[in-house]
Amino acid sequence: MKLTISLTLLIGVAATFAHEGHGDESQMPLDYVRFPYQAQYPGDDTVVTADSIFSGITTFAKLPWVQCLGKNKVEAFDIAFIGAPFDTGTSYRPGARFGPAGIRAGSRRLTLYGGYNVPLEVNPFFSGLKIVDCGDIPVTPYDNHHAIQQIENGHRELLHRGPFSPLGNDSITGEPLVPISKDGKHHPRVITLGGDHTIVLPILRSIYTAYGAISVIHFDSHLDTWKPKVFGGAPSSQAAINHGTYFYWASQEGLIKNGSSIASHGAIRTTLSGPTDYENDDNSGFQRIEAREIDTIGQCSLPGLMYAHSLGSDQVGTDGIIKKIREVVGDKPVYLSIDIDSIDPAFAPATGTPETGGWSTRELRTILRGLDGLHIVSADLVEVAPAYDTNAELTTMAAADVLFEVLSVMAKTPLGKVKN
Ligand SMILES: *[C@@H]1O[C@H](CO)[C@@H](O)[C@H](O)[C@H]1NC(C)=O
Ligand SMILES: *[C@@H]1O[C@H](CO)[C@@H](O)[C@H](O)[C@H]1NC(C)=O
Ligand SMILES: [Mn+2]
Question: Which SUPFAM superfamilies would you find in this protein's record (predicted)?
């Protein structure tokens, strides 16, 4: 038994370094043992050390820690988790600088049973991709201008590192895939742990260098396209860049695709300064899906028939939301940004600007799985402020599980297309 496990370990490690790529089932996500519950005891010299999900150093999902921005500057990967512990763009509750550490703590349990995602029929940790936790980008808490530059530089350095696995061939035609990026290169994916939402401005500046203006799927209870005069009053040019205005700036800078059907907000339910906030949001290129639409989408709204008729079952509830998002972004390369406040504070209270009336954790996870097949080039999860969490780690667990869905969707779809 012990021999079998250590052989599996050796084969796994060997295969990982042999550039096997997609379809290979043998990546080892855990440094020491195949599954934590199989931890070996010290004294067994075939295993480095005993480790289990509640002990040892905490990385996202117990993935290997690679100092991607430090001594392991040349190490290649396919998907990297990286923290951006920045929260000095927050309007209400500060504390998201502890988000990366909190999300990692909430993610410890993800591989307890091995990490197979039942509805998506994939185990991202054994999909042949090399997935690592790069630690955090160094971010100063004293100077927002400098911090935003640090985040862009850190993200860019990861994004432009050659990926570990080749793109492989199309699963249907067998034709070799070519990159979908604008610079023609195959880039790894970066999943950023926020941090407040301001971090998405430097991230989109980084994404632009590889993909050009990008489509965005944004889950949030807020618009985040507010004009600086409306959100924060803009007493200085630096104050004008904050967690309620970064999409306004991203649009102004041409980082997100503009036009009628390119970017999509989901879970919106904020109050406004007035209806003009929605006009401004339209001008920033976004389509909105309000949180409450989950109850009504696809249902006949003729007077008196409000709840009597529903259309096809693929057009109501979470399916209706998924359909609407997919129609908006199509098969374009897309950046995914998730504010934990899209989930109702009953399930995820520890956040910068909580809004009641949101989606459940189950609903958001279902909607994210509905993005299966989209070309998600990178993603983030932001606004987790662990100091406001329950002792049961409700919010950080929700954040980790949401990212597990994102990771699973990414693992299923390579960032390539058949040349035509
Ligand atoms: C992709 O197809 C080529 C032939 O076009 C083949 O040589 C190669 O082994 C295939 N790669 C994978 C990962 O299947
Ligand atoms: C985006 O497009 C809309 C409508 O086409 C336009 O009104 C708006 O000015 C554009 N925004 C930017 C930043 O180009
Ligand atoms: Mn936000």
Answer: Arginase/deacetylase
Residue 253 has pLDDT above 70, yes or no: yes
Q: Report helix, strand or coil for 279.
A: helix
Is the per-residue pLDDT at 388 higher than 50?
yes
Q: What is the CATH classification number for the domain harbouring 135?
A: 3.40.800.10
Measured N-to-C along each axis, helices 144-159 and 200-211 cross at an angle, to the nearest 10 degrees, of 40
Q: How far apart are CA 321 and CA 286, in angstroms?
A: 15
**Sign of dihedral through CA atoms 403, 409, 414, 416?**
negative
**Mean pLDDT within 200-227:** 96
Bridge pairing between strands 189-194 and 376-382: parallel
Give the environment of ion ligand 3: residues with CB less than 5 A.
197, 220, 224, 339
Tally of structural domains, the chain:
1
Q: Is residue 179 part of a domain?
A: yes
Q: Is residue 225 part of a domain?
A: yes
CB 236 within 8 A of CB 218: no
Q: Which two tokens stand for residue 285?
A: 């290129």
pLDDT confidence band for 309 (50 / 70 / 90): very low
Taking the C-alpha atoms of residue 409 and residue 19, their distance in angstroms, rounded to an integer, is: 21
Give a yes or no: residue 9 inside a domain: no
* Parallel, antiparallel or unpaired: strands 131-136 and 177-179: unpaired
Span from the CA of 224 to the centroid of ligand 3 (angstroms)? 6
Whether 416 is in the pocket of ligand 1, judged by its Cβ within 6 Å, is no
Query: Cα–Cα distance between 250 and 215 in angstroms, integer?
Result: 12
- Please report how the helices 99-106 and 394-412 are oriented relative to each other, as an axis angle in degrees rounded to 10: 80
Structural domain includes residue 21: no
Rounded to the nearest angstrom, the distance between the alpha carbon of 321 and the centre of ligand 2 is 25
Q: What pTM value is reported for the model? A: 0.87
64 secondary structure, DSSP code: P
As a whole number, mean pLDDT of residues 214-232 equals: 94
DSSP 175: P
267 vs 30: CA distance, rounded Å:
35
The range of the structural domain enclosing residue 304 comes to: 57-418
Least confident residue range of 98-102, 155-159, 229-233: 229-233
Residue 31: count of CB within 10 angstroms of its CB: 17
Rounded to an integer, the average pLDDT of 49-68 is: 82
The 10s digit of each residue's pLDDT in 273-282 is: 999 999 999 8
Query: Is the C-beta atom of 176 inside 6 A of ligand 1?
Result: yes
* 8 A C-beta contact, residue 402 and residue 371: no
